[in-house]
Specification:
The complex is a heterotetramer, with 2 copies of chain A (246 residues) and 2 copies of chain B (365 residues). Chain A contains 12 helices and no strands. With 246 residues, chain A is an all-alpha fold. Chain A is globular. The chains are: A mainly alpha (246), B alpha+beta (365). Chains in contact: A-B, A-C, B-D, C-D. The interface between A and C is large, with 88 and 88 residues.
Chain lengths: 246, 365, 246, 365
């Protein structure tokens, strides 16, 4: 690499790394315990953990069969479905949130159906947080698992069938164990995306303490009046990101 | 690779009989096995039978997992997340406890014989390719079966590893109480594992017999090239055989096609044999690569069965060089590379060929 | 695939696709032209286009050399740098925005340096929007290009050298043309991420009309008082997402 | 693959001379070429010279792009985004306009001769592998050079495509005004492209001579196996040669090692020649695979040069089968597969060997 290219390459590293270093350096670590147990951060953290986990579970339940079909089936229309379900990957979360609002809002088609049937409104509830997280995070799980399904093919399944294994046994004992690494990777990615979700959440679920105020939403609010708490919460999320990456 | 191939194969394989399906790439070997195993479906209107059971045809379809025709593939396809033992007894799981226990004991015994007893609890994903190939065959042989299917089980292995695998598998097959069908490209597989050979060409059965019959008297171009012989059509009369310079049969073996492309048109040529042929009339003449000797100049031995020719092509076979002659006969002669260098046997060079008539096989067409 | 798995697979498709379909269906297309030319949407759209394009250009200038080093170099420390520059990929954008604020804000280390030297503040300016977009989008470019550099290796470069090509000629005539497809893909991805950026922008740059209010930020605001305009703007962004995907 | 290998190679290659570097995998062929080309650096203290130029050594380092030693690799490495013509003239770009124009004309003429004139404006990424391999050599030959380096240029090609490529390249090399160094695994490359051979073993030059000299009288185990001969150490006395059953030289060729593993210890054995050897004393005995004939039972010809042995291993070479014998001599005999089947030549089987003494090469060690 010619020497003068070091300048832009180095600048790139500084641009990306410096803010994180500064944030970690300025965080008031001695007060971290106190700040973390302040009710805003604590509530938001708890809400984030359990909504992200729920959203990931839902994504896995719905997404694994979809990835299976996309990765091994040969039906027509698969290409279109693949395109449609990956749109949320590149869609700005705010737009996703808006779409959810226009769909599940009280005056909206699905929203009014739910209101008539069950008497509940979806937006600005904890359920809305989970729905928003599923919407933005499930495509990550589907896309990474689909690749794994495709790469595996059906070689092992064919062998298992000729040996006399019935289809359910084959799925349980051959297909699923083989997917474990990809499944775990996809789940980690999905969870990380869900826990960091902000745009769709604030649009579709708002920022109601203990109900819809997840950690990213809380950080946005804390930046207005409690910088120290915002710093501690942000550092916490950097830690989560590194854990997911490694 | 979804491909449409019309298959016309009707072979009977008795219990204890081991049939090798041979044929060039795309001749239909794997298709036959996959149809038998139930992994592919035959076109409507056709029928696939195994024993007395109609597997596909007239609307009947037996699911792959209910056919009891376990199959080994070109890749071992062991289940990498299971232990070696769980792989080996996978097929018996459906047959009840006592069958599973028996299979377990047989598996352990076989592993011990192979000297692989220490691998019993190892995950199958950790095995070497040679071990995997052998254990894949063992898993197939241990499954409850009315017949066993092997699809080029050692084709992915190195020469020496394949030799070990072959000798390990050899013993089990002698005790196999059901028919075996083996698709292979390797004549060593046929020598070690088969009792009979069926030659497929473009989906059609063109020769079927014991290994010895097919090796001695191949009747198709592929079969001849499989056992390493050049085959010519001829016409015998007393001790003379008029040999036609053309190959008989359809062109399918890949290397033959290449030779055909570089070969000039060849005229008929007369071989004088030392004794009479069994019968006058049309015959096949099978020539081994060692029957012909090449010389850089005309040898002194006399005019019989000697001719001048040019080198049409050279090809490397390991450390040997296969020289293909041009007119009058497109014979292939294997010589040491050192000999080829001494002869200057480059394409286009002039050489003298001399054939040993006693090593020709001449038999009625 | 066993038949009963169709239920979750189908549900997954509905969850991901339905909101988009409803949004597109409910958008008041006849009024679209009028709404798009309303000053809020028009200003936000223009701002989005040029900030995202600027951010992508900056990312390419800084990111290509970095990707080259990461993809072909063999220095120690490369693994650490790769980890550090990919953190923004999984970091919630709000946290990224917070980190930027703590770094470039008036009281912050780099911010006060800039204030003393140039007499300007960074946050809540158009420059802040671009910085936020570079921070979240450049890692996409770096990661996808790094893979391309790695996959190419140096085979062609070696051949070009023995033929007598000097290093700069080799980079210009051999390396760069070979990277074109990956570069275009990476740029598209980077631009899409930049144009959809919301969390870091709103935290670090706020929502000032014509200055920092990009399209996603505007949509968030419009949801409060002009649903029709929000719908049209959202549909526009779905269109952009599909164009990037295809 | 960063690997540490001590190289000790000192060969002179004159203008118009074409040296083939041969040796087993890891013997250092590619390392020598890459050091010469300047793509790898030699360890401090060592020196690499080319002609009178010290390329590396004593602190001098000439950059790869300034050495004028263009190289072709095992993969064609054409620049896929450039046209064929731009690829071919890439090397001349630095040498000024008139040189570039000349090269352009030469490139066009060469393309026409190859019948590839229509590809001149095509992107190199669209070529077939055979075309790419030929054009990669052409690009190297057209670049300004004090020497040309080819590293297994045809090793990735199919047999027939490689044959075409070889004959296309053959012509250019005869007019090459500079030395050529060619690393290869293929004896056909040596036959078609080289005038001299250098045999490397583990980084060390063990034999150097014309192609004919090395093919006739190999003095190392690898060289013998490269030209398809078995080599034994012996002791000659009049018409008798006492042959030791061991291979001479270090064990490096991969297939030899495998044979060694399955070979039982072999005793010395006496060959009676038809005429006296040139000199009494220690000799090499080179045996071609065709010098030995195998029989299923003892042949009637008499007791001379006939022995009973067992089959140690069989190996497939195309459609031929290479049978390795056990004691007394680990000879390798190539026979048609049909013959191997007739002999029942499985590992462990008993066969009779008969050697033709007139086809042995005996020469002083």
């Amino acid at each position: 690499m010619p020497a003068w290219l070091w300048l832009p390459a180095g600048t790139a590293v500084v641009v990306l790394v410096l803010p994180l270093v500064v944030l970690l350096a300025r965080t008031p670590w001695p007060d971290a315990i106190t700040l973390l147990s302040s009710s805003t951060v604590r509530d938001a953290f708890a809400l984030s953990l359990w909504t992200a986990t729920t959203a990931t579970a839902v994504s896995a339940l719905l997404g694994v069969p979809l990835a299976w079909w996309l990765g091994t089936g040969t039906s027509r229309g698969q290409g279109l479905v693949r395109l449609l379900v990956t749109i949320p990957l590149v869609l700005p979360p705010v737009v996703g949130g808006a779409a959810l609002l226009f769909t599940y809002g009280r005056g909206a088609p699905v929203g009014s159906l739910v209101w008539n049937l069950a008497g509940v409104t979806v937006p600005f509830t904890t359920a809305a947080v989970v729905i928003a997280q599923v919407f933005v995070a499930m495509p990550f799980l589907v896309v990474s698992l689909e690749g794994a399904f495709r790469a595996r093919g059906v070689l092992l399944e064919e062998a298992a069938l000729t040996l006399g294994g019935d289809p359910w046994t084959v799925f349980r004992r051959v297909t699923l164990p083989g997917l474990r690494p990809a499944l775990l990777g996809g789940i980690a990615l999905c969870w990380a995306r869900a826990v960091g979700e902000f745009g769709a959440t604030i649009t579709f679920a708002g920022s109601i303490r203990s109900v819809t105020q997840t950690l990213p939403v809380a950080i946005d609010e804390l930046l207005g009046h409690d910088l120290d708490a915002a710093m501690v919460a942000s550092s916490l999320m950097i830690g989560l990101a590194v854990v997911v990456l490694v | 690779m979804p491909r449409s191939l019309r298959l016309d194969v009707d072979v009977e394989v008795g219990p204890g009989e081991r049939l090798a399906l041979v044929g060039s790439n795309g001749a239909g070997k794997t298709s036959v096995l996959r149809l038998l195993a139930g992994l592919d479906r035959a076109a409507p209107g056709s029928s696939v039978t195994s024993g007395r059971t109609v597997l596909v045809g007239d609307g009947v379809h037996v699911r792959a997992d209910e056919r009891r025709l376990p199959m080994t593939f070109a890749e071992p396809r062991l289940f990498p997340t299971m232990t070696v033992l769980d792989n080996l007894v996978f097929g018996a799981a459906r047959s009840g406890r006592s069958q599973a226990a028996t299979t377990r004991l047989r598996a352990l015994a076989a592993l011990d014989t192979l000297g692989l007893g220490h691998l019993v609890g190892r995950r199958a994903g950790e095995l070497s390719s040679g071990q995997s190939a052998v254990l894949a065959v063992l898993r197939t042989v241990l499954a409850p079966a009315v017949g066993v299917l092997l699809d080029e089980p050692f084709s992915s292995l190195d020469t020496e590893v394949a030799a070990d695998a072959r000798s390990a598998v050899h013993g089990w097959l002698d005790q196999l109480p059901v028919p075996l069908v083996l698709a292979t490209h390797s004549v060593l597989d046929v020598m070690a594992l088969a009792t009979h050979v069926a030659v497929l060409d473009d989906g059609v059965l063109v020769q079927h017999g014991t290994v010895d019959e097919v090796a001695r008297r191949p009747t198709s171009r592929f079969a001849a090239s499989f056992v390493g012989l050049d085959l010519f059509a001829g016409h015998s009369h007393g001790t003379e055989v008029l040999v036609d310079g053309t190959f008989p049969g359809p062109a399918s073996a890949r290397s033959d096609r290449a030779v055909a492309a570089t070969r000039p048109p060849a005229g008929p040529w007369t071989v004088r044999l030392s004794s009479s042929t069994p019968a006058d009339g049309p015959v096949w003449v099978a020539v081994a690569p060692r029957a012909t000797t090449l010389h850089a100049s005309r040898p002194a031995d006399g005019p019989r069965n000697i001719w001048e020719t040019t080198v049409a092509a050279v090809e490397q076979l390991g450390a040997a060089v296969r020289v293909t002659c041009a007119a009058p006969l497109p014979l292939r002669v294997d010589v040491a590379a050192a000999t080829a260098i001494r002869l200057g046997a480059r394409p286009g060079a002039t050489v003298w060929g001399q054939i040993d008539p006693s090593s020709l096989e001449v038999y009625p067409a």
